[in-house]
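Predict structure. Input: PA domain-containing protein, 216 residues.
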Amino acid sequence: TLSVGGPGSFAETSDAIAAQRVTDNGVYFTISQGNDGAQGLQTSGNPAISSGAMAVASIDNSNVPQLYLLTPDGETIFYSAGSIFGGWQFNVNSIIVVNDRQAAVNDGCSGPVKPVTGAVVLYSYNPADTCNSAVRCDKAAEAGASGCLIYNVGAITGFILLSAPFLISIRVHLTGSSSIPSGSISLADGQRILTITAQNSSALFTFTNRLGFAPV
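Output follows.
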């Protein structure tokens, strides 16, 4: 693998030929594509232009595909599915029961504090929690919940994303329940659900298995 090169669209240069010969001997050869090539095929940089190279490039994208649910008025809330059971497998209309509106830490670690049979339960996340998502979502399932949402966690990816300069965005891995759909949503979306359900506890949300384009 090489991360070298520069402008020049000639497959006959010495480094491009070297890449071809390495490939001819059965070795996979990856080379960074660089920022050239806007004019089309065979206009990118050298030696990525070599017919023996696998050119690797990246693009800037302001949106990513993500699963979503719909509020009663049709607004989209994106969610990241749990890693065990996953998210919702088909469209489901359900109320959302907020477990504890004043929860500080460990929301749901001892199980739901309200009846949740047939409903999706909403828990808040705090970095100081002593239980993980699997514990609280499985307890929700045992109490009869049909789904489990956790908010205040942003997009779930399982690592810490560092963005220059000096910006750290924390991402928390969501395991979720082993028997019911689970998902994580942002703090803002969690607060939106709090507002909706405070005004109407019977409000129906539509949980989907569809993908939309969420802003990065």
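Confidence is low (pLDDT under 50) at residues 154-172.
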